[in-house]
Write a structure and sequence with these properties.
The chain is mostly beta strands. It is built from one helix and three strands, in the order E-E-E-H. The protein has one domain. The chain has a three-stranded antiparallel β-sheet with strand order 1-2-3, with helices on one face.
Length: about 60
């Protein structure tokens, strides 16, 4: 199952808090626990970004 979460993160490029949308892959385990993995992050403030091509938040989501 995928889960969409919207939140804020500090962006070093913009120098302020920005809105981001994260998509997580969520799977239940056999031990009543939940395993989740970030599969995509999208900045919702891209129009205000001075350099979207060098976005550290996108790189962070791929690590």
């Amino acid at each position: 199952m995928q889960s969409l979460l919207t939140g804020t993160r500090y962006c070093p490029v913009a120098g302020r808090e920005i809105q981001v949308e994260d998509i997580y892959l969520v799977e239940g385990t056999c031990t009543c626990q939940v395993d989740w993995q970030l599969i995509n992050r999208r900045c919702l403030d891209e129009s205000d970004c001075p350099d979207a091509s060098a976005c550290p938040l996108h790189r962070e989501s791929l690590e």
